[in-house]
Design a protein that fits this description.
The protein has 170 residues and is an alpha+beta fold. The protein contains eight helices and four strands; from the N terminus they run E-H-E-H-H-H-H-H-H-E-E-H. It has a four-stranded mixed sheet. Helix 5 runs antiparallel to helix 6.
């Protein structure tokens, strides 16, 4: 394969989310649009930043990691974010219900939340987020630039696209 036909590495977009955050649910429209526009050239990675004000966000982050382990991370994340109010009201049973609705192994979700197998991943994300000065969600990191959507998501999709185009040489 000649160099000109070698596909470039995808650009990584880290999406720092709190899975009990209504603003992160709104941000999914941007994530979907960016995925549609860039396809495999943009690797959107969920990073966890559970905010203290959301008492079920930490467990939700662990549940999302279990969904990724079962091969349905983004569908689970999107379904869960659509139910942030319900998660706030009813707590952890919602995490198991969403898993069952998506055909995931709900018993394994329950076990994962009890045995804490995903605690280190969530804790590492949270620590890294603090280190790079994530203060709210959603926050995006692309090409070393941090874009804070916690205050306003206005223009974020366009800004991410500008950076992605620059990094992809488009």
């Amino acid at each position: 394969m000649s160099e000109s036909t070698t596909p470039a590495s995808p650009v990584v977009l880290e999406a720092w989310f709190d899975l009990q955050c209504p603003d992160c649910f709104k941000a999914l429209d941007d994530v979907r649009a960016l995925r549609a526009a860039y396809g495999d050239r943009l690797d959107v990675q969920l990073r966890h930043f559970p905010l203290p004000k959301h008492k079920h966000a930490y467990a939700a982050a662990q549940a999302a990691e279990e969904a990724f382990a079962q091969g349905r991370g983004w569908p689970y994340t999107e379904a869960l974010l659509a139910r942030t109010a319900e998660l706030a009201d009813r707590g952890e049973p919602v995490l198991i219900e969403v898993a069952a609705e998506l055909g995931l192994d709900a018993e394994e979700f329950d076990t994962a939340l009890i045995d804490g197998r995903h605690l280190l991943t969530v804790d590492a994300d949270e620590a890294e987020g603090k280190a790079i000065k994530v203060t709210g969600t959603p926050t995006y990191v692309i090409g070393g630039e941090r874009l804070d959507g916690g205050q306003s998501q206005e223009g974020l999709r366009e800004r991410v696209a500008e950076i992605a185009d620059r990094l992809l040489g488009a």
